[in-house]
Design brief:
Distance between the termini: 79 Å
Helix content: 25-40%
Number of domains: 2
CATH topology of the largest domain: TIM Barrel
Bound molecules: acetamide, zinc ion
CATH class of the largest domain: Alpha Beta
CATH architecture of the largest domain: Alpha-Beta Barrel
Radius of gyration: 24 Å
Structural class: alpha/beta
Number of strands: 18
Largest sheet: 8 strands, parallel, barrel
Oligomer: single chain
CATH superfamily of the largest domain: Glycosidases
Low-confidence stretches: none
């Protein structure tokens, strides 16, 4: 089989088809001090493959070294010569990525390799994957499975979406009801089966350690001030009008959000983040901040009082006020802060907060301006990098061909593209099987956008590698979407879109409308009296 690597390396030269190295149980591993993570990864891979420890009694050697094979952080060089494989990394992560490349080659080559030379380094230093565990709970083992697959793709940021309207998954000792009440919903969109689950503090720490072992940072997200119905269900005082709600069962943007008028909301959230920053030690916190309807704020006396006190012109400024206050709180603790980009507003959160670009509400020119003016961006444009969207809407080809380098971004501005992240939202992804179908093979394309230099990315070449890539995935027990589903022809495309839109034929949309009408009628009337 033709050997290939995803994401595509900077430079790859394969001597001839004739194998010069066969990796057997006899191979001896030499790992220099400081290459522990790479060594552990290699040992896990080889001992699983050989169903036991290596004997190290043969003449073949596999060396893991630290050096300066290239100028870039996280870079490495891999050589295969007669009886000797050498991986030299610029740093520990570099050696680790060399091992990931080697794993792909070994799987494709049935553990026999020809002479070859690869030298490689990443285009971006933030290469992410987001898993939404708020809508559906994924077990600790499933999360770890995804972390392993991230490592295989040389991704280094696990963005963990831990809360949403449909579930709060992160156990916090100071607010135990968040998980005791907020992690349970009575049913889900398409069935009447209850759904629940959360991660204990110990489990989250275990996952963080697991990720660190694989050169991956963990960025937790507690999404506020919108997407908080599960939190309000546990602590009604967090909402305007102290509403008594149950955890959301359906998808869709909810009108009940945090009350920004009450100081108690801030005391509560600061305490949440105090605990969160003890568990997640990688120095980055995601605030969420997306999709916040202002209907409740418009009629809440606390919110209106705050607006008057602070001289705010509209509720959009209240949204910014909340995010800025929490962001500053976290920055003072030494954390970097990220949030989803939303609409362009007159008053925006300070440019020290990085935006994760996701939607089309800000046009590309506004994004370019913001980037040129110094704000950092993680690119997760829904039209290419939202992995829950059906292949009929976001095909593999579309994901691959998307370019984050929008018109109008200056050379300096480009430096503010911190990286690329693929996002798996799970409103309609109840289990690992569906998750794998959605994520693969698109994550392969995203990994090339994140790792491979723009001038080396080539869709035709990527397609030639898919056979080998599917073998690598299958070796790891992954069931990707078949290619005919991932790049659907017109009929399949139409079917995919129709199947997706069945989500609209439910009562949730209507419920949002009637509920809002009733809230308005009740509280606006009280106001009049
Ligand atoms: C988002 O998709 N609401 C970030
Ligand atoms: Zn309020």
């Amino acid at each position: 089989m033709k050997l290939s690597v995803i994401p595509q390396p900077d430079f790859i030269k394969i001597g001839s088809d004739e194998p010069c190295f066969e990796l057997t149980r006899l191979c001896e591993i030499e790992a220099e001090k400081g290459t522990d993570k790479a060594e552990a990864e290699l040992m896990r891979f080889l001992s699983a493959h050989f169903e036991g420890e290596l004997l190290g009694t043969g003449k073949e050697r596999l060396r893991l070294l630290l050096g300066e094979p290239c100028a870039e952080k996280e870079g490495y060089r891999l050589t295969v010569e007669r009886d000797c494989i050498t991986i030299t990394g610029n740093d520990e992560a570099g050696v680790f990525y060399g091992v990931q490349t080697l794993k792909q080659l070994l799987i494709q080559g049935s553990f026999k390799l020809p002479e070859l030379l690869i030298s490689d380094s990443p285009a971006f230093h933030c290469r992410g994957f987001m898993l939404d565990c708020g809508r559906y709970f994924f077990t600790k083992e499933s999360v770890m499975h995804f972390i392993d697959l991230m490592a295989l793709h040389k991704l280094n940021e696990f963005h963990w979406h831990l809360s949403d309207d449909q579930g709060f998954r992160c156990q916090l000792e100071n607010q135990l009801l968040l998980t005791e009440i907020g992690s349970y919903r009575s049913h889900t969109l398409f069935n009447s089966i209850p759904h629940q689950g959360y991660y204990t503090k110990a489990e989250m720490k275990e996952i963080v350690d697991y990720a660190h072992e694989r050169c991956i940072r963990v960025i937790p997200e507690i999404d506020t001030p919108g997407h908080v119905v599960s939190m309000i269900a546990a602590y009604p005082f967090l909402s305007c009008f102290d509403r008594s709600l149950t955890v959301a069962t359906h998808w869709g943007i909810k009108n009940d959000v945090l009350c920004i008028g009450k100081e108690s909301t801030f005391e509560f959230m600061e305490s949440v983040f105090d605990e969160l920053t003890e568990i997640f030690t990688d120095g980055v916190i995601h605030l969420g901040g997306d999709e916040v309807p202002t209907l409740r704020w418009k009629i809440c006396p606390h919110c209106q009082r705050r607006m008057k006190q602070e001289g705010m012109k509209d509720e959009g400024e209240l949204h910014t006020y909340y995010l800025q206050r929490i962001a500053s709180y976290l920055q003072k603790k030494g954390f970097e802060v990220r949030m989803w980009n939303d609409r362009k507003k007159e008053k925006m959160v300070d440019s020290s907060v990085a935006w994760q670009l996701w939607n089309g509400e800000m046009d590309k020119k506004e994004v370019a301006d913001e980037m040129n003016n110094g704000r950092g961006f993680i690119i997760s444009a829904a039209e290419a990098y939202y992995l829950d969207l059906p292949y009929g809407q976001v095909s593999l080809k579309k994901t691959y061909e998307y370019s984050p380098f929008y018109e109008g971004i200056t050379k300096e501005g480009r430096k503010n593209i911190l990286g690329i992240e693929g996002c798996l939202w799970t409103e309609f992804v109840p289990d690992i099987k569906k998750a794998e179908f959605c994520v693969f093979p698109r994550l392969g394309a995203i990994s090339e956008a994140a790792w491979t230099k723009e001038e080396k990315r080539n869709y035709a070449m990527f397609c030639e590698k898919l056979n080998g890539y599917y073998n690598v995935l299958s070796y790891h027990g992954v069931e990707p979407a078949p290619l005919k589903a991932a790049n659907p022809k017109p009929l399949r495309k139409a079917a995919s879109l129709l199947y997706w839109e069945r989500r609209k034929f439910c009562w949730a949309g209507l419920y949002n409308l009637t509920d809002n009408y009733l809230v308005k009628r009740k509280y606006a009337k009280e106001e009049e009296q």
